């Protein structure tokens, strides 16, 4: 239905696309469960700014961003947004304190739409008047809003089988002790009920994930209550780091990262030596995002079209079945290959990663690259001990500044790879680089071009910069220094524009959004006097004082003509002179043009800047057209 | 004459010291010709051998000398015969003189083309340059090389020389040094490239077997600012050579048809959903873009009007520390920025910036729009490429970097957060350290498997098979050649050389299959699984789970898991090797089921097992059961059972039981 016909022509590209696209055999259903108690609306940061930042705002922000990414990348996943600790209630079970947020033309749990994203981003503005916030669990009442919320979420996730769909509840809250306000038997009873509800939910194959928000001075203590609800034990609790940060943006960042569900590409075996073979998972952390697939519509009805593919024998025109034999012309013959033979040719290894040895990092050159890298991380799931070996090698490789050379015998694209160990890097906003190894796909000799040799100077050395020129260049580079540059700090302006337009059209808006192109150089910064001076000094040092003048002169010289252009000019002048001696209108009128020679006809054409190619008839008709006859 | 047509003379040393690598020489040269047969059908190839027993060349006839040089094939358009020649090179018994051979090669080219075809003529010499060349009649050897270089330059002939030296037993180092100097002199005085390789694998990758005419991606200014610009040309530095696209074959053409193409065309028809018979013509089709569940129709004209249209140009955003850009962010194949050829100012400017970047360990960030009308921008990193050859200018490599949208920030646990049982101890770390240190593929700058000299094994195999099939249509896919196996598998020589390090590594680490996980059919990971611990854990886990009182679910889960475990054991058992383990597990399962009053679960399972396996070679397992008094659970043992004591005892002999 949504076949991109261009993509189907190439057999090899099918496997290519597999590399760029992640396998998403499973859909994902997510319920975002957001605490809306007054505590969530307390200022997390009191700033001079007029609008205080709240935890609630941070949560909504994260969800909006994630929906935005989802509508672009994985639009088949279904989501629901649900608030608890609300004044109003809106849910199928009619439970108090739970409000399921939704927009037109959409089930409660459904694919995200442009409208959902838009209205969600404005939800805060009228939250108090429309939905309202209050504490749901208070002493003296048997109301349990957390219990209700879990129940509603579970009910929302009832559809779809747990086998084919991964179901998650993401719980945003800043309250680490939801039952803190009540005491006695009621408390124990309510805790027990809530835990049982959570357990039942988990038994149905729904995972509950907690995204705690904390105050800078008061860390979210997961062991008070939530550890038990989530089923964390021992080490898990200490590993469970609450997202807290001095800055709310950092926390938003952490939450956003944690909302991703890690999707592995596949599990592969990594054979190290003799009979030692460990297991690692591969992840596609970096892949170009494309504007998505298109589908063909009928422009009259705007309904999707069905694409039908048929195979036609080029010799007889007969319809044939999809052929299973391929051929390659060679030495004026046709060499046939069966599918089986082709896959045998490509199958030169066993799908495993084979260690060949180690090399110092400087053997990995800047031009040893073909495709985005793949991340590998060990797993003990099937082979116990894999992680230990991986960690040991990882450490040694970092210590000795070496990478591992390996052969990745993948069935569709076997390749030599470099495994580069990456140490964990963290910042205030959490993990920046995960620990593990990056698999870098290396080119073969056929893939490398020796372009620089094309313009080799014979018997003469190429000019090199002098020390002074290098010094000027160094000064320049110190001036134009991007101190905190981090890879991927830019949004792709083409994609942003693409989705901006789509969103506007999907919502029926007339105005096209303006997208800021962040990738343009900082003109203002570049015009600072220090930089201008450094640029000027460098320019003079490599180009000489009068460069611009010289350039202008050469450009002018080019304009006023080389040998050829002078000749052309002279010819045009002659033609104009000659052409003037004929009365063309008269000749045309009387059909006498055909009596002239081609050379004579060309005088007219050249004088009037018309093409002079073609046979005599063509020239005549061109003249007639030009004369308007 | 076709624009990119080229003429190559292969000068192949077939003397005695070359015999060990001649099969690779044969295969790399026939690959060259094969690719010409496909991609450059009008290219011309000549073959000259040196070190042969005979002598056969025109120069010898005309002026004398030039012994042991045979012109195997005069320069002519490539054909299948050339492949045959190259695949069956004769082995010579004499020491060839490579300078003589170069002269013969030049002579062939000059006689064939005269002053025409400049710059499209190439001589390709493959030798080990191990024996001294003859002293010239007059002047020194250096003078001779100068004269020859001069001649090559006037006729626009370039020289590619591959010097192959695998190992160096009793070789005369002085002679080789002299020869190397002579060859290097060519690269200074003429357009020549000398490559040294030391293994048969690198030999296969050392010769460019396919000519791809280079195309610039961009010609114009590298803008440091609006006032300071450097003229550059941008090319692709790497680009993957793809597996050839094969055509679909149709056998419908009558055998009498001489002009049959045998091709299959693929036709697409777009049909309306409501009326499947109605074909929608192309002009009535419109593109739909997905946005969530919605599909937004936009015509190409509308799209053209609103889409992102950046201005052509390559602009500097700034410099940054090289360490800010990690290697794994490189996204694509690599570009190279060379200064505009012949433009001295540009060459110096590029050189100054490249060398400054190198000294300060900086990278530059650029924003590129290669062509006008391109719908996107590229952000990437510029790295210096300081030329090591005097007559090649300095240049830059450029790698594309990802945008925010291209990166998935998955979070992974820190290694330090893993339990201590997953952390290597000191001894293990030392074993790993030794492995990383010793298994060195680049000892003292002699790097093996350099990408620049490593051929693509799949393509090598395809072209080899293509040639084979052209002679024997029913040939089988040949196994991977030994030299190519050096790429796909660890080199046994290297591994056995460091046997003690590897053995020590293997000894220090233990791997075992995770018993909780269902079996994996592949048992590739270790020769002998540590059977004892696996059995123990299976039973232990079961008992631990049965003992949990917090939910009744654990019992049924434990029973289920154990049943699966036993089934797995039996399915994977070979010649009864897993029987004892399976029986141990069954005993535990039986005991558990009696305790938990779940006799039916056990009985049903055991009967099911029997039904499934009784007619296979596992039948003897059930005989073993009765000998271990592993019977069905009778009513006497657990009141819920509906099996009598009598029936239980008779299992598996009498099995017509109801339950």
TrEMBL record, chain A:
<dbReference type="GO" id="GO:0043564">
    <property type="term" value="C:Ku70:Ku80 complex"/>
</dbReference>
<dbReference type="Pfam" id="PF02037">
    <property type="entry name" value="SAP"/>
</dbReference>
<keyword id="KW-0238">DNA-binding</keyword>
<feature type="domain" description="SAP">
    <location>
        <begin position="593"/>
        <end position="627"/>
    </location>
</feature>
<dbReference type="GO" id="GO:0006310">
    <property type="term" value="P:DNA recombination"/>
</dbReference>
<dbReference type="InterPro" id="IPR027388">
    <property type="entry name" value="Ku70_bridge/pillars_dom_sf"/>
</dbReference>
<dbReference type="InterPro" id="IPR005161">
    <property type="entry name" value="Ku_N"/>
</dbReference>
<dbReference type="GO" id="GO:0042162">
    <property type="term" value="F:telomeric DNA binding"/>
</dbReference>
<protein>
    <recommendedName>
        <fullName>ATP-dependent DNA helicase 2 subunit KU70</fullName>
        <ecNumber>3.6.4.12</ecNumber>
    </recommendedName>
</protein>
<dbReference type="Pfam" id="PF03731">
    <property type="entry name" value="Ku_N"/>
</dbReference>
<feature type="compositionally biased region" description="Basic and acidic residues">
    <location>
        <begin position="7"/>
        <end position="21"/>
    </location>
</feature>
<comment type="similarity">
    <text>Belongs to the ku70 family.</text>
</comment>
<dbReference type="InterPro" id="IPR047087">
    <property type="entry name" value="KU70_core_dom"/>
</dbReference>
<dbReference type="GO" id="GO:0003684">
    <property type="term" value="F:damaged DNA binding"/>
</dbReference>
<dbReference type="InterPro" id="IPR005160">
    <property type="entry name" value="Ku_C"/>
</dbReference>
<dbReference type="Pfam" id="PF03730">
    <property type="entry name" value="Ku_C"/>
</dbReference>
<dbReference type="InterPro" id="IPR006165">
    <property type="entry name" value="Ku70"/>
</dbReference>
<keyword id="KW-0227">DNA damage</keyword>
<keyword id="KW-0378">Hydrolase</keyword>
<feature type="region of interest" description="Disordered">
    <location>
        <begin position="1"/>
        <end position="21"/>
    </location>
</feature>
<dbReference type="GO" id="GO:0006303">
    <property type="term" value="P:double-strand break repair via nonhomologous end joining"/>
</dbReference>
<dbReference type="InterPro" id="IPR036465">
    <property type="entry name" value="vWFA_dom_sf"/>
</dbReference>
Automatic annotation (TrEMBL), chain B:
<dbReference type="InterPro" id="IPR005161">
    <property type="entry name" value="Ku_N"/>
</dbReference>
<keyword id="KW-0347">Helicase</keyword>
<dbReference type="GO" id="GO:0000723">
    <property type="term" value="P:telomere maintenance"/>
</dbReference>
<keyword id="KW-0233">DNA recombination</keyword>
<dbReference type="Pfam" id="PF08785">
    <property type="entry name" value="Ku_PK_bind"/>
</dbReference>
<dbReference type="InterPro" id="IPR005160">
    <property type="entry name" value="Ku_C"/>
</dbReference>
<feature type="domain" description="Ku">
    <location>
        <begin position="277"/>
        <end position="418"/>
    </location>
</feature>
<dbReference type="GO" id="GO:0006303">
    <property type="term" value="P:double-strand break repair via nonhomologous end joining"/>
</dbReference>
<dbReference type="Pfam" id="PF03730">
    <property type="entry name" value="Ku_C"/>
</dbReference>
<comment type="function">
    <text>Single-stranded DNA-dependent ATP-dependent helicase.</text>
</comment>
<dbReference type="InterPro" id="IPR024193">
    <property type="entry name" value="Ku80"/>
</dbReference>
<keyword id="KW-0378">Hydrolase</keyword>
<dbReference type="GO" id="GO:0003678">
    <property type="term" value="F:DNA helicase activity"/>
</dbReference>
<keyword id="KW-0227">DNA damage</keyword>
<keyword id="KW-0234">DNA repair</keyword>
<comment type="similarity">
    <text>Belongs to the ku80 family.</text>
</comment>
<dbReference type="InterPro" id="IPR036465">
    <property type="entry name" value="vWFA_dom_sf"/>
</dbReference>
<dbReference type="Pfam" id="PF03731">
    <property type="entry name" value="Ku_N"/>
</dbReference>
<dbReference type="GO" id="GO:0003684">
    <property type="term" value="F:damaged DNA binding"/>
</dbReference>
<dbReference type="Pfam" id="PF02735">
    <property type="entry name" value="Ku"/>
</dbReference>
<dbReference type="GO" id="GO:0016787">
    <property type="term" value="F:hydrolase activity"/>
</dbReference>
<keyword id="KW-0547">Nucleotide-binding</keyword>
